[in-house]
Amino acid sequence: MLPTSQKPAGLFSAIVIVASLGYFVDIYDLILFSIVRVKSLNELGITAADAVTNQGLFLINMQMGGMLLGGILWGILGDKRGRLSVLFGSILLYSLANIANGFVQTIEQYAWLRLIAGIGLAGELGAGITLVAETLPKEKRGYGTMIVATVGVSGAMLAYWVGEVLGWRNAYFVGGGLGLALLALRVGVYESGMFEQTKNSDAPRGNFLSLFTNTTRLARYAKCLLIGVPLWFVVGILITLAPEFGRELGVTGPVTAGLGVFWCYFGLVFGDFASGTLSQLLRSRNRALQVFLGLCGLMVGVYLFGTRGVSPTAFYAVCFLLGVSVGFWALFVTVAAEQFGTNLRATVATTAPNFARGSVVVLVPLFKALAGPLGIIGSAAVLGVGSLVVAFWAVSRLPESFGKDLDYLEE
């Protein structure tokens, strides 16, 4: 039970507001590279189309590799030191790294700073979702995480606008500045009472390896990871490489990655709101996830096989609907948090989304390898079907967690 000194937080408490704004800045910085990829690489002397694609994928892999490392680091710290220390520590690191990104002069500098930024970006969402889930009443926590996601993903739209108006270097400076400004909102945010109680128990906290020493626990964890892979297939390949897909599909005008990201994330705003609301109305996280995975499969098919020869406007409309269909990100992280006890919850809620994001590190070389014999359309189709089938299976095998009491420890 919660300590008597801490009452459950409200939907618009300081905790929910700070977690939402933190995710807003997180998404701004996370997606900014996809938006400014071509312009920034061109200015650094990379102008050939193939080189822009290859160097862009390399930098994405560096960023995602950092998120894999950061997911483990911040997840362990979240259960050992507390959710707040991770929430604000990660914001500080990625803010400073993104300010430094505005000064890069070489690809090597760019790569290392994307790695450091990735490590920082890995901590905010898991810590924020864990804190919100543990401080809101169990009947309302789905709405709380829905607010975090809906506010957060709109950060991508600001990133597009700033990148277009102020240029790519200034866009990095703005992102770092927003993160540093957010740290001033620490006042009024308190630590989770559930976490505070674990300090008085003998149960080990933040033992990442314990996820692999118990077969049942490992299976539950693996299923959580697999649910998020389709989203990052969509964002990391279909949307990031929208210009390349647009040329292959014969879209009648130029397609830019920036507008592709903008419309996809505009769709994600509606999708995250809809998926969170649907899970509350159905009183089932799993059924809501299955609905959205089915919708995602439909829209991936439309993107790859229904946009040949269309106008850029119609192509961007499909990017928007594709974004709606993958708008289950916060719902996925909420499910991961609800599957585990308080002494491992931050570890899981932080590593799960980052391992899902980091799946791009595996998806990209697979995409490139399959693109040789199958072309980029065939390659994307194979990866899309594979990731969606596995994710649907994983959801169907997870215990339902709607309304679950989270005040317990993993043995």
TrEMBL record:
Membrane topology of the entry: Multi-pass membrane protein
PROSITE patterns, per the entry: MFS (PS50850)
Domain Major facilitator superfamily (MFS) profile: 15-411
Ribonucleoprotein keyword on record: no
Entries under SUPFAM superfamilies matching the protein: MFS general substrate transporter
Localization terms from the record: Membrane
A GO CC term assigned to this protein in UniProt: plasma membrane
Highest taxon in the source lineage: Bacteria
Key words, A-Z: Membrane, Transmembrane, Transmembrane helix
Record-linked InterPro entries: MFS (IPR011701), MFS_dom (IPR020846), MFS_trans_sf (IPR036259)
Transmembrane segments: 12-36, 56-77, 84-104, 110-131, 143-163, 169-189, 224-243, 255-276, 288-307, 313-336, 373-395
Name of this chain's protein: Predicted arabinose efflux permease, MFS family
